[in-house]
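Below is a filled-in request sheet from our internal design queue. Each sheet records the structural input a requester submitted and the sequence that came back. We keep these sheets so that new team members can see what a complete request looks like end to end.

REQUESTER: design group, bay 2
PRIORITY: normal
MODE: inverse folding
CHAIN LENGTH: 219
BACKBONE (tokenized):
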């Protein structure tokens, strides 16, 4: 089962901004992450211009359970029969192949979640599921009996999230660099980037498959 974790909070708390920082960090660690966004304001979801009045929309209205539209900006998916479905059901149906699914919103869903709290605001502390932590800009310590993570620190956010919610495919071990037998100190960011570059290069070679350990020797 694909693990699902929620990022929730009051309107304007900074949920999407947090995800814009967190997602590149998770990708750099080798994870395939899907995102489900809850549209909770009523009315229809805006669809791309390519969808409006075209055959794809007509097919969906005619009763197709799922219609995929491929266009220059990516792929738009219209799926019926999922109205009101929770994030776990949506992930199972729509996010096959992901290591981790993040559900933005869904504050009452029965999933583990992190609440994003705007500066100088009180947390909502939503019920349903397990509230893992609060995320505040510059946050640290504890609040309301929960750990507080800095919303502006994607490395700390990723570390906390991956410790709390184990992805389908654990991220690879950080790369280590040795010079004449002595390990060269590297910070976590540089180590992660080096690991991703090496694994990406090796995976592009024919016949390599999914390597668990890579060794490069010079000299």
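RETURNED SEQUENCE:
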């Amino acid at each position: 089962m694909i693990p699902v974790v929620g990022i929730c909070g009051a309107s304007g708390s900074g949920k999407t901004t947090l995800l814009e920082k967190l997602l590149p960090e998770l990708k750099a660690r080798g994870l395939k992450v899907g995102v489900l966004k809850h549209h909770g304001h009523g009315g229809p979801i805006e669809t791309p211009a390519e969808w409006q009045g075209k055959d794809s929309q007509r097919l969906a209205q005619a009763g197709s359970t799922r219609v995929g539209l491929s266009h220059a900006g990516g792929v738009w998916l219209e799926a019926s029969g999922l109205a009101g479905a929770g994030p776990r059901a949506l992930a199972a149906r729509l996010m096959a192949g992901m290591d981790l699914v993040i559900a933005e919103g869904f504050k009452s869903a029965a999933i583990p979640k992190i609440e994003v709290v705007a500066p100088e605001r009180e947390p909502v502390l939503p019920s349903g599921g397990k509230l893992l932590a609060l995320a505040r800009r510059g946050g640290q310590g504890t609040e309301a009996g929960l750990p507080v993570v800095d919303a502006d620190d994607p490395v700390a956010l990723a570390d906390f999230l991956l410790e709390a919610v184990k992805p389908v495919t654990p991220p690879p071990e950080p790369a280590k660099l040795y010079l004449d037998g002595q390990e060269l100190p590297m910070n976590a960011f540089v180590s992660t980037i080096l690991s991703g570059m090496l694994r990406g290069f090796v995976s592009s070679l024919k016949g390599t498959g999914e390597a668990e350990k890579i060794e490069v020797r010079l000299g």
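SHEET NOTES:
- The first helix runs from residue 15 to 28.
- The chain has a mean pLDDT of 82.
FILED BY: M.R.
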